[in-house]
Amino acid sequence: MRFSDLSVTAHLKDAPLNAHPEHDHDHDHSQPQLLQDLQTLTRHGGRRQMLRWLGALSAAGTLPLVGCGGGGSDSGTNLYNDNTSSTGGTTTTTSGSCSVVPEETAGPYPGDGSNTANGSVANALALSGIVRSDITTSVGSASGTAAGVPLKLVITLTNTNNSCASLDGYAIYLWHCTRDGKYSMYSSGVTGENYLRGVQQTDSNGQVTFETIFPGCYSGRMPHMHFEVYRDANTATSYTNKLKTSQLAFPVATCQTVYNNASGYSASVSNLAAISFNTDNVFSDGVTQQLVTISGDVTNGYEASITVSISV
């Protein structure tokens, strides 16, 4: 089957590259995310992943507006029993014990200068103070604070081309939704905020640490965080300089515990119950390189860690 034969091609041709979330319902992330993710797979040549996902949807009899939630496995096993993961249309190369993290869509709400929000370019990377560890508060002229269960996230960046050696001096831009599924700068009610976005430069161990909150689960996706990798903090000013774009996944059991026991996450309960890793349009090909290791509790907060590998 050729891509030109797929019925979804017409959708991809007509779908806008830049979403306009200011016109969307607060939690109506599904359709723009779906179209943009399909476009990303096509642009990067991810034919195998695209065909699999479309095949799964075909078996269900429709292209659904995928929901966001539980019921999936936490194991991170590749769902298609492959020994490789898709990275920009090619298979990953392994050096030592690390593999290149899959390339993923930045989604409609990156805030990296690649699209607009409310009629102007949305670029949190250009904000003074965006290089910080604690991303729960806004910077610049904004002063809001994102409420939620505290989460400390440690990301270790390594190089598959150098025996998995740590990469120091690189920059990681992290962003994610609030506990009720909104993205600062874009979603109704928080367009004037820029919290839950921040840049950190890796230390001599290749590590960055972000103090944030546990993300909510909005309709259309499994709980996740987005990140981009840059050569250093000086170049982490625009999406045009990024080296890698990917996403982090969270164990379903932990998500269920947070959503069922912490205040402010009530909408995430039903959203989480409506999806699994198998049906998520980003994670359906496996989350082996993207699933964080996490510990803690709702009362005292959580600590999560993950090693992310790129090829440089």
Describe, in short, the structure shown.
With 312 residues, this protein is an alpha+beta fold. It has helices at residues 9-14, 30-43, 47-60, 252-261, 266-273, and strands at 86-87, 90-91, 94-95, 98-99, 112-117, 120-123, 150-159, 165-166, 171-175, 197-201, 207-213, 224-230, 244-249, 293-297, 301-310.
Describe the overall structure.
- The protein is of the alpha+beta class and 312 residues long.
- The protein has one domain (3-310): Protocatechuate 3,4-Dioxygenase, subunit A (Sandwich), CATH 2.60.130.
- It has 5 helices and 15 strands.
- It has helices at residues 9-14, 30-43, 47-60, 252-261, 266-273; strands spanning 86-87, 90-91, 94-95, 98-99, 112-117, 120-123, 150-159, 165-166, 171-175, 197-201, 207-213, 224-230, 244-249, 293-297, 301-310.
- Strands 7, 8, 11, 14 and 15 form a 5-stranded mixed sheet that branches. Strands 10-9-12-13 form a 4-stranded antiparallel sheet, with no helix packed on it. The chain has a two-stranded antiparallel ribbon with strand order 1-2.
- Helix 4 packs antiparallel against helix 5.
- It is globular and about 45 Å long.
- The relative contact order is 0.20.
- Residues 1-95 have low confidence and may be disordered.
